[in-house]
Write a structure and sequence with these properties.
Blueprint (H helix, E strand, L loop, with lengths): L10 H8 L11 E3 L2 E7 L7 E9 L2 E7 L23 E5 L10 H17 L3 E5 L5 H16 L5 E4 L2 H11 L6 H10 L9 E4 L10 E5 L7 H10 L6 E4 L8 H6 L4 E3 L5 E3 L3 E4 L8 H11 L4 E4 L3 H14 L4 E2 L22 H4 L64 H6 L9
Parallel strand pairs: 4-5, 5-14, 6-9, 6-10, 7-8, 7-9, 10-13, 14-15
Antiparallel strand pairs: 1-2, 2-3, 3-4, 11-12
């Protein structure tokens, strides 16, 4: 209904798509045609999953794991991704923060809380532009706990709309949230995601006096209520705007982070920025270490990176191939990628000694790494051959105790020979070819 906005899909197309939606449970494998699909918990936001997709055909079974967005670090309101080592042929992974290694989570939280507290103590207002799902639940939970510990009475608001609806789903699906929230609910009956200290924001409060904290959507100051509040509060130096993550180029948030002191919205509107700006990342996406950890955990034969900036993806590709020794693909949109596949069956050669009958029971095994100890008793020496004339024959070989080695290690008569089976097992091993 917005002027100048073209719909990509019609309402009937959306309804047709929704009729195909199926309900599934974590780790439940379901069939779609010849494909077996299993969802796994991905963290990130409520309901986020990674899918393992298997197909069995004449040439064997092939599999793909598609992560979608995921987080490898547990948050206050959600756990970390739980994707097992499935060894797929291909792992398709997001790479939003392929060039970033985040610092201490605790430090980020302390910096955020101190900045907010310092502002409201000085009677300033705090604006936090966020999207309806993800960051806002994490930051609301953090701020609510801090407010209770500090005995703060400054009001905390969230704007109406999708954000309040999202809060209800988080309260409803507690089993998807962090286990500490579930444990607290089971022990006390209190749902920490109910946000009892947070109130609904009314637009009339934009011009109200006194300190307050407002979580407003959408994020990035890309429009809506967050931009409306920012236009009113940006000119006051006592106020603070906290941007909790990446802002797409072309948004007001991107201009603000760039350090612009004036932002032109249109031919008639210009924002003069005098308030303090803070970038404190609360992203629900995993970082470089998390992506490498995911690849190492799942153990794919090949990796395909999506959802990231090209230069960062290429840097990550190099790390995957050099550090993990796994082929990595980085196709652009609409570009076809050829995935290197390993054969589903591997031909194996077995040596003759491996296929030979079992050894006699009295023979003791020789360790393959050392032949200086625990050697078997040599086979009995052949009977002495009588000489042509009178007199004794050759002296019988000197007997040795089990485990004793002769002094001549060069292969002379003072060293007995190992049995043939021991020489084979000490060489290249069963199944090897020479």
């Amino acid at each position: 209904d917005k002027k100048g906005v073209m719909d990509m899909y019609s309402e009937s197309e959306i309804e047709k798509m929704m009729s195909k939606v199926r309900v599934c449970y974590l780790k439940q494998t379901f069939q779609v045609g010849r494909f077996e699909i299993t969802p796994y918990y991905a963290g990130h936001v409520l309901g986020a999953v990674a899918f393992e997709i298997k197909h069995t055909g004449a040439k064997g079974t092939r599999s793909v794991v598609y992560t979608g967005d995921y987080s490898m670090t547990p948050e206050r309101h959600l756990g970390a991704a739980k994707i097992p080592m499935t060894r797929p042929d291909l792992l398709i992974s997001e790479s939003t923060y392929a060039d970033t290694i985040r610092g201490s989570k605790k430090k980020r939280e302390v910096d955020f809380l101190n900045a907010v507290k310092e502002t409201v103590i000085k009677q300033g207002k705090v604006l936090i532009p966020v999207f309806a799902v993800g960051r806002i639940q994490e930051m609301c939970l953090l701020l609510q706990e801090f407010w209770e510990q500090q005995g703060m009475t400054v009001p905390i608001y969230i704007t109406k709309g999708l954000t309040t609806k999202a809060h209800k789903y988080y309260q409803l699906f507690l089993d998807w949230t962090h286990e500490s929230i579930v444990d607290n609910f089971m022990a006390t009956g209190t749902n920490r995601l109910a946000f009892h200290s947070v109130k609904a924001f009314d637009p009339s409060l934009i011009t109200a006096p006194g300190p307050m904290v407002v979580f407003a959507s959408p994020g990035m100051l890309s429009g809506g209520m967050s931009l409306k509040i920012f236009k009113s509060w940006a000119s006051e130096s006592c106020n603070l705007t906290v941007l909790p993550g990446f802002c797409v180029p072309g948004t007001v948030g991107s201009s603000v982070l760039r350090g612009d002191k004036t932002v032109r919205l249109d031919h008639h509107t210009t924002i003069n920025i005098r308030c303090r700006i803070a970038l404190i990342s609360f992203s629900m996406h995993t970082d470089l270490k998390g992506i490498l950890s995911m690849i190492n955990r799942v153990r794919p034969s090949a990796v395909l990176l999506v959802h990231g900036q090209k230069r960062n993806i290429l840097t990550l590709k190099e790390k995957v191939e050099k550090q993990l020794r796994i082929p990595c693909l980085t196709p652009s949109n609409t570009e076809r990628a050829l995935v290197p596949l390993h054969p589903t069956s591997i031909p194996t050669l077995a040596s003759i000694s491996f296929l030979s009958p079992p050894l006699p029971k009295q023979t003791e095994a020789i360790p393959s790494q050392s032949f200086d100890t625990k050697l078997t008793e040599p086979p009995p020496a052949p009977a002495p051959v009588p000489g042509p004339g009178p007199g004794p024959g050759p002296a019988p070989p000197k007997k040795r105790k089990l485990g004793e080695i002769g002094g001549n290690r060069g292969g002379g008569s003072d060293v007995f020979r190992r049995p043939r089976w021991a020489r084979i097992s000490a060489g290249r091993g069963f199944g090897s070819s020479r």
